[in-house]
Amino acid sequence: MPQPTTDEAEIVMTLGGWLRSLRAQRGMSQEEVAFAAEIDVTTYGRIERAVCGDQWANPRLLTMLRLMRALGVTSNDLLESMNRPP
Q1: CA-to-CA distance for 16 and 11, rounded, in angstroms?
Q2: I need a labelling partner for 35 at 20 to 30 A (CA). Which of 8, 45, 63, 67 fits?
Q3: For the HTH cro/C1-type domain, which residue ranges apply (predicted)?
């Protein structure tokens, strides 16, 4: 798998930070989010940290939809967060 460009890496890191922030705002643990989204807690942790082994995390669309549902946000919320400065 090719390494992400600088822009892609920034997006992945922003996504992880956004998920971490939402989780903290809701007072949820990684385990609670993963359970609600029906994904493995290790997978969720990798997405938050933006890494998967020696590769950048690259969650599937269905995984992101499950996470957004579990955290009570919309795809619009996600896209808007990508346009905000950190």
Answers
A1: 9
A2: 8
A3: 19-78
